[in-house]
Predict the structure.
Amino acid sequence: MAQPLVKKDDDRDEEADYSPFLGIEKGAVLQEARVFNDPQLDARRCSQVITKLLYLLNQGDSFTKVEATEVFFAVTKLFQSKDNGLRRMVYLIIKDLSPSADEVIIVTSSLMKDMNSRTDMYRANAIRVLCRITDGTLLTQIERYLKQAIVDKNPVVASAALVSGIHLLQTTPEIVKRWSNEVQEAVQSRAALVQFHALALLHQIRQNDRLAVSKLVTSLTKGAVRSPLAQCLLIRYTSQVIRETGVNSQTGDRPFYDYLESCLRHKAEMVIFEAAKAITELSNVTTRELTPAITVLQLLLSSSKPVLRFAAVRTLNKVAMTHPMAVTNCNIDMESLISDQNRSIATLAITTLLKTGNESSVDRLMKQITNFMSDIADEFKIVVVEAIRSLCLKFPLKYRSLMNFLSNILREEGGFEYKKAIVDSVVLLIRDIPDAKESGLLHLCEFIEDCEFTYLSTQILHFLGNEGPKTSDPSKYIRYIYNRVILENATVRASAVSTLAKFGALVDSLKPRIFILLRRCLFDNDDEVRDRATLYLNSLGDGSVAETDKDVKEFLFGSLDIPLTNMETTLRNYAQNPTEEPFDINSVPREVKSLPLVEKKAPGKKPTPLGPPPPAPTSASDAYERLLSSIPEFANFGKLFKSSVPVELTEAETEYAVNVVKHIFDHYVVFQYNCTNTIPEQLLENVTVIVDASEAEEFSEVGVKPLKSLPYDTPAQTFVAFERPEGTPAVGKFSNTLRFTVKEVDTSTGEAEDDGVEDEYQLEDFEVVAADYILKVGVSNFRNAWESMDPDTERIDEYGLGPRESLVEAVNAVISLLGLQPCEGTETVPNNSRSHACLLSGVYIGNAKVLVRLSFGMDSSKEVAMKLAVRSDDVNVSEAIHEIVASG
Amino acid sequence: MLLAVLIANSEGNILVERFNGVPAEERLHWRSFLVKLGVDNLRGVKNEELLVANHKSVYIVYTVLGDVSIFVVGKDEYDELALSEAIFVITSALKDVCGKPPTERLFLDKYGKICLCLDEIVWKGLLENTDKDRIKRLIRLKPPTDF
């Protein structure tokens, strides 16, 4: 008896594993779909076939056009069946098949019939299907029914129409906007979901009408909103209204704040959180306003639901960036979250704590983090490392424990990005905290003893070469460096040789011993390593204890003050056009190319790690240089110093689109007018720009290069050249008129008439300003660069910038006036700050390096004062910079 | 916008996916990203215990129910709390249709009904129905009881 029983169990197990769709095949299912054509429909069987079709579609199978059409036509037959289950399936499969416009017509009559059916559920579903597959023309036909449906007493019908409205608003807004009366009525509906959908639609219809949104919010915040979802929407719309109205200047009250605050006591957590979040995001929020919201978020931190904990800690993390003190009350709760099972929550808790913690809590915090680090993924670790880096810069006295922490995690397992984040942090701390230097360098030395990443090893060796020789006992690093020569791959060995040579060049007492080590490298089996060793041995002197020549040091280790990308493109060009002439490093342009503005994508459409890499920046100035040097008239103008970004001289969508690029040479200025003819019926010939330079006295016109012909939609250039006194930053205003001969074009044949008419077209004026004579060239370490410049060239002065809306505005104005490159991210001004320091660097015409330190301060009446300190290769340039600011 | 609802089996094979407003070329990335997220984090998680993650302004809430893992992805107004509401509706509808936390087999047996439920819950990226009893009636084309 036992035997069959066991067998039966086995059978059942097999059955449980067996998928009803096992071996499903598209061809077979399409065959099966023929049952839809049976005169006697078997509803059950038809439903099963539709399920299979749905499964195929969901698995990513796609139907060919013919297959889809065939299935779609067959499905439409099923409207004959009165079986509810099957009808529901039919609605779904029609939506999923998304028929093409010419097929839609087959079902519209059936769907229109259903839309007027007495069965509510037919109406609701038919609306959804129709709105999914319809286009604008059909919509006008069914608009009347949709309006009725919005106020239908059956909430499902009303919701279907409202949600359809939300979707249709994207494609045919003019029609949906006509429904606002009905939608308004639906907002008052007693059914919770109808109200939610109606509110969303009404807001979308009126979102550009501030007054209407404000009215909507005013009336609803007083009345009863039924569902938590709708309440959340209302809170969002309310904060939008608050943002736009601002604080009442007399009473200091914020409109609707009381409403937000009352929502903190709502029974739905969703609403509580939304209100708390809205309060924390108010602009210029005061501590008094923040407190109740923070209290609520603190309670959510200990919720049993991970989603709530996550939401709360994420919001507090944001608050901590602007109001760290307000969050400190939650520190204890957040500390307990460090051990949260959800790593996202734990990481957010830690980074928040690192922002809010005070100096005394650092050590305790570090201990907790150490335990936590071992069981999180690299991406979270990187976030923590970055937070620790900023903490260390905030509390430099605590560098010891933070540096220890970094060195400990450096020894543990981890991927490249993680290790790189740690190494970057250590390097930054060494640079900014002098006391941390020696211990930091030793940690890095230990790390390269067992480092699997070539990139990091070479980076550290380079850094060691710069910093090591300046320490009290440089000799202790040599062992680590020479070990690399023995143990590592060729790339690292070559770096190690360079680092050794740097020690030799900078520390005279070590030189003889370094020479011994370098001589050993002559027998390396890699060319690069041997070449480097030979170069250093031959150029650093004879190996005796003697100071290395300054020129040699500059030649071997001086910074290459040319952007590497520019160097690369120039070398590529050089290699492509074989020539007898040796490569001239002075031909490499020095301008830093700003990255093209990346178009703002809809936030979060994709997570970054999954996205494709951004396109490589293209080089505009190389193209300009080639273009200009190819024009004989401008060939003897010398080296191009700078080309401006294009300045538009016409409004958008005019007949002729013209912009100008200002090319600055030492002695000349060339204006390149980029012209586009946007009229298909016209051909322009002999196109020139007549420039009136009466408001630019120092400039005199020396040449014009007209444009022979400008056909429709083919951009081309005409040029005008001016001479100006050499080296001076002459400024002035230029008025422009486009002059040309216009010929009619027969668009059918593309042929132009023989005779043309002369015509003119007025363009906008533009100016040559001081910033045109300054190149944006960044420096990697501003402090070092500043200190290496002669202090005698420094010029300091103070300026009043008058009342300003915010410091951001003042800082941006000065940066754009000077046209210098902001360094080390100092162009970003924290919100609401009253003082700010900004570092700028660049090259002034005549190749003089310029560094600028700006300190801004703002008093209670919003008056901004600025201190400007300049150092430069040339005192006159320092003074010129002050002149620019004084006259700007 | 509710960008995606995705249901996978315990081995990471997709059973149902519904994307809204996600370009076709990005769907593959999302699919593998979510499945990996599940593999990394869902082992040993109790039925319906919610996990949450975010990347910039995109939120992901996910959980297990029986043999299947469920992921919902949203942005803007569909933040983690709205998503947890949506996933709650989905799990309760699933349990309702299957009678218990489903095995993969049971899930596939009820595949058609589940598709209908999802169709009622999320409509082109917007949450439409949130009450499981109402959904149960709607998928059989029965009007809701509460009107």
Remarks:
- Chain B is about 40% helix and 25% strand.
- The mean pLDDT of chain B is 89.
- Chain B touches chain A through 59 residues (CB under 8 Å).
- Residues 80-98 of chain B form the longest helix (19 residues).
